[in-house]
Amino acid sequence: MSSAALFINYFTDRHSLMRTWKRAPPLGPGISEFSRRYFVNASFLAMAIMSSYFWASFPFDNLCENDYPAPPAYYGNKTIFRFDSNETEFLLANETTPSFRYCNQDFFTAAGRRFAERFPYVPSNQPEGDEWMTDEQESVTQIYGWAAVAACVLIGITFIQGWVESVVQWLWGDSISIVDDQRVNFSDVTNISAYIPHVASDVFSYPLFVCAMDGIGEEVIDWRDPLRKHAYYDLTKDAEKILEGIDISNKCVFSQVRKMCF
Q1: What are the residue ranges in the chain where pLDDT is below 50?
Q2: pTM for this predicted structure
Q3: How far apart are CA 52 and CA 151, in angstroms?
Q4: Nearest-CA neighbor of 60 among 3, 104, 30?
Q5: Residues 38 and 112 in one domain
Q6: Residue 226: C-alpha distances to residues 82, 207, 215 (Å)
């Protein structure tokens, strides 16, 4: 069972690696940074403003209580029929029954004022004469309203900062270092390796170099042949021997690699 599981896992991963998986596109963190700065902040701002609006517009019935009771014409036993069911309700109206009037509790359209005059949604911005908030509602609305104003200011600063950074980067560009200088020279590292053009051969145990090894130090090659030097695997030497008498110095046949010290 273990052999079968390992066999299936091996061939599945090999197929995925060779046929299915691809290198991730070089997008970088730009999309996530843009989303975090703009979309997340805009969602938070919308939540703060709409929460303030819903608390201020509660209870959404557009009714304000008058200072005087219901008129005598409404006194007596009244029967109320519900439209959504067959139930009925009986109500006794007298001189203690309050009366109500229509008042627009929608801060978006209240009193026909502009948005700048209605925001923030605090008790002082209720239409004059048509105040509907209770004392507790006024306390909560006061907190939510000014909290929404603070959110607008902070998120607005974040947006402006992002726009300024984008313009500056677009005009002058920027350079961000993602590593620290370790103060260690590359040539001082014990296990260093440089790319040397080479080809693999079934005849030799080590790769064959397709460039002249005269200007390359052996310390940048990450393998060693205990019996022979690296120059033994230099194909340019073979070409000079085979094509003896033919000048190939001006021909772009082999790669050129040089070690430079500063």
Answers
A1: none
A2: 0.47
A3: 12
A4: 104
A5: yes
A6: 100, 14, 21
